[in-house]
Amino acid sequence: MATIGSSDHARLNRIGSHVYWLPPDDTTDRPILGAVVGARGTLIVDAGNSPAHANLLLCELARLGVAPPRYVALTHWHWDHVCGTSASDVPILASRETRRVVAAMAELDWSDQALERRVREGNEIEFCRSMMCAELPDRSGLVIRPPDLSFDGEVALDLGGVTCRMVHVGGDHGADCSVVYVEGDRVMFLGDCLGDDLYHGAPAYTVDRLFPLLDRLLGFGAEWYLEAHDPEPVSAQQMAEDAATLRTIGRTVQRIGRDREAILAALPALLGGPLSEDHCACVDSFLAGLDRAPDVPGSAPAWAC
Fold first, then answer.
1. Is the pLDDT of residue 1 over 60?
2. Among the CATH numbers 3.40.190.10, 3.40.50.2300, 3.60.15.10, 3.40.50.1110, which is that of 13-304?
3. Is the pTM of this model over 0.90?
């Protein structure tokens, strides 16, 4: 195993024999970008939040002299994962739902005025608008390329000496979310699939979506998980512990109901220690999820429906 983590947002890290990743940068909400390198080509995981972001990865891959990009895989439609799609001309691959929503995004007006209007209407998030304006002050020439290829369920990609499985998993963060699992290396790119729903009021987790997703992700048998906005890979042991914590919080909210103070009083004994800010935020997300209609299809604004 080579380098696991680095504080340099512009330098690739390596994990396993075939997997590289560019660290996230919360200055402008840049997520992890990944590269799975085979003998016949390289799969890029997510296109980044701007052409400049995507080009950082492309330049690093050129510096390493690895096989050229063969596909770009989009884990979901959110702006920070797709606004760099114009940086390369290789085929873009995504789930059928991601392809549909990104095609709608490609037709949107991205001016300051249009973004402000969508925020007022509840079809964009203030945080995303602010980060987009910071990363892309001038969006007059922004081009978002819709995926060329789509799949239902999952698809396997043989890159030469390494096989990736791209699997549609859904979740609260987005009904379209997919993961990329690198067999052999046992590394999984999660994208944001474990995030909460951001587009239907307060951030929300629902037990009915999150718990089956946790079971499914742990069932792959990965040794390392790369979440899009986490600065370091997460080990299988840590992933299992985090999943157990989420389940404990979710079940406690289900059992007690909307009494937040009673939930916060019960959890320290169940979790074996004092509550952190993250624990409290999870409580609030599960509480918000109690009011989420079961037919709300994951996180997507009105223009994408």
1. no
2. 3.60.15.10
3. yes
